[in-house]
Write a structure and sequence with these properties.
161 residues; 2 domains; two-stranded antiparallel ribbon; 2 helices
Length: 161
């Protein structure tokens, strides 16, 4: 398992032919984002709640980097790289690519993104420029162990020394 969220699950699946397996249980999947010429393409379950859907369509992902909650990169040939969900895609066009995610993970560096947005203060609408932390391997909810990969929840019994 790579990560879970309220409405998503990302896991590695080991099988001889994933699309054949999906085809055998097509009633469980929304394959509307598959290529129209793909054998499993169907609009029957388009936007039906509870149906599983591939973020990369019929193309298999080649790279995954998960930094923290709602901040991951998923790359597939011919598909755009997934961006951290906390920013608009236009903000992270260059800053938050999967390669940047990998660099942040390995070097524990971080990147910042500057963008303009509308803010309402006392019912007065303003345009403001904000700079926020975009990519960071630092996890503020868990203690990162010496290997830089494994984590423990703060308060874990082995951390009480």
């Amino acid at each position: 398992m790579l990560f879970t969220d309220t409405d998503s699950l990302c896991c590695e699946i080991q099988t001889d032919d994933l699309h054949k397996d999906i085809g055998e249980h097509l009633d469980l999947y929304d394959t509307s984002n598959f290529s129209p010429d793909h054998p499993q393409y169907s609009r029957a379950n388009h936007r039906v709640q509870g149906k599983m859907k591939s973020e990369t369509g019929s193309v298999q992902p080649t790279e995954f980097v998960g930094l923290r909650a709602k901040m991951y990169g998923l790359k597939a040939p011919g598909n755009a790289t997934r961006k951290p969900r906390v920013f608009r895609s236009s903000t992270c066009a260059n800053t938050c690519a999967t390669s940047s995610s990998w660099t942040c993970f390995v070097t524990t560096a971080h990147t910042k993104a500057t963008f303009r947005t509308f803010r309402s203060t006392n019912h007065v609408l303003n345009t403001v420029e904000l700079t926020k932390l975009c990519l960071s391997a630092f996890h503020d909810k868990r203690y990162i162990l010496h290997d830089g990969v494994c984590t423990l929840a703060y308060g874990h019994r082995s951390l009480r020394k």
